[in-house]
Amino acid sequence: MSQQPSPSLPETPSSPSAAEMAALAAIDALVAPFNRGDAPGLVIGIARNGRLLYRRAVGMANLEMGVALTPTTRMRIASTSKHFTAMAVLLLAEDGLLSVDDAVQKYLPELPQLSANGPTLRHLLTHTSGWRGHDELWAIAHGLTFTHPGPGLPAMARQSELNFEPGTHMVYSNGGYFLLAKIVERVSGKSFNDFLKTRLFGPLGMPDTASVATDLDVVPGLAGLYVPAIGGGGWQRGMYPCELDGGGSLVSTLDDMLRWQAHMRSSEKTVGSAKSWALLSEPTTLSSGSKVTYGFGLARHPYRGVEIVHHAGAVLGAQSQMLSVPAHGLDIIVMVNGAAVAPSPLALKVVELLLGDVLQPPEVRPQASAFPSLVGHNYHAPSTGSVIGFSADAAGRLCMSWQASGGKPMHQGDGKLWLGLQDLPVNDLVLDAGDIDPQRAPDTLVLHEGGQPRRFERLDPAVPDAASLAEQLCGDYTSADLDATGRMTLVDGTLLFTVQGRHGQHACALTPLSADVMTLVSTDPVLSQMGKSILNVERKAGRVVGLRMDTLRTRNIHFARQEQRA
């Protein structure tokens, strides 16, 4: 293998064809609304077969100083960092210093043994470990209270149970990749950033890419992160509350990322074996035999007849999407520092504009009118506490929500209705369309979660009001896994559940779906936009003895009821 740095892409776009010129003009029109001097913006780069087609920055890098974004501005890429972490692990495997099938505790012995089935490093890489993530645990107990690096690993070591048995399901986890970064450090003897610079960024000629663990760090050339100010009008700084290493810590530039993508597609590897690079996007097989279109940090699946390889990322004030179409040599990188644009749909629009002549027609989603009996109903799985719900969007498409998250338009084919990894950060959720009577709401549904059947029961649309449940639920609770307490109160007719951690608190408002199943939404205006959670009530002889909380990525956080002292 050559050990020379990858050749640089030219900084000036090459002469495009007439069709490409028309596509690039359309891309310019998509980007133009964000070319403002009073708001954050985005950078976008496009290359095809090594030719730089498009390289543009719009909007501001620093609102306070009036500094505009440029194509060389460093940007947070958030979760697009994950496959870099995976590649670091694979390089250590090539060195013979570890195996991806080693137990995690071999390198992190402070973690308890919670399953005879692992987890292994492979489980962490594929989000199938079941281990609860440090960032989710922190947010549940502390909201957006900022912490310096340190509490993450102890929080994960405090857990007494897993979300699920390793290898049985896939639930996206920043915490799993945080553990992988710790393993890289312990095995290599280097800091995570130093290892990446020595083994990846240096050899590949990526001088502006680095791992930056917290948003407190001052980094030359790095764009500020911005979110809309609470109450509307103006901006405030985005700051991720806890450690980012491994799962979302990288900063990079348009040129560095296009260089990385070109190397990823190339048959000639400067670092790592072709086998290791292929593992980044090789589909994962769950214990049920069901496949997930996600490998070691990258997703790979068809889009309108062409195969795409991609990963998106988001933290407070930054979003990104890295997408390649290998068969057509097309590489796209979009990085945003607060502009009101979603990078993933923008990248797909670029694919459509540049490859429109080879794409299949857009997928037709099922209409809610074909399944009127489902719309407006919620279903609950007694065995797991999970909740699904059905609605129609503005286009009349049938949508399903999972764990009270926003409804997503469903897919239909081969007698099935489903949501996949492209829709939610979990394994496929599949219903048999033939089991659904379009005229009468089914009393039960069988949802296949990661290939495993789960029985869901329809919840009565007539729900109790919060005040009627207050006497049963109000009081004090404690959670050992969170190292936190909880208090349920009734305030102005609304049930509030406030979790008090050691360094902050987080309050959520409850909406009953039944006497024993409720949704939670944060009272924090930022966290409230990130979705809802589910609370299941535990009873013994009719009396409330505990609560179990489920978020989109964390399951069965237990709160034990505290007895009142006489």
Structural class, by secondary structure, is alpha+beta
- Strands ordered across the widest β-sheet: 19-18-17-16-24-23-22-21-20
Q: List low-confidence stretches.
A: 1-7
What is the share of helical residues? Answer: 10-25%
Mean pLDDT: 95
Total individual domains: 3
What is the fourth-level CATH superfamily of the largest domain?
Answer: DD-peptidase/beta-lactamase superfamily
Radius of gyration, in angstroms, nearest whole number: 24 Å
CATH third-level topology of the largest domain: Beta-lactamase
- Strand elements, count: 32
Largest sheet geometry: 9 strands, antiparallel
CATH class call of the largest domain: Alpha Beta
Number of discrete helical segments: 11
Please tell me the CATH architecture of the largest domain by its name. 3-Layer(aba) Sandwich
- Overall form: globular
Amino-to-carboxy terminus distance: 75 Å
Strand content: 25-35%
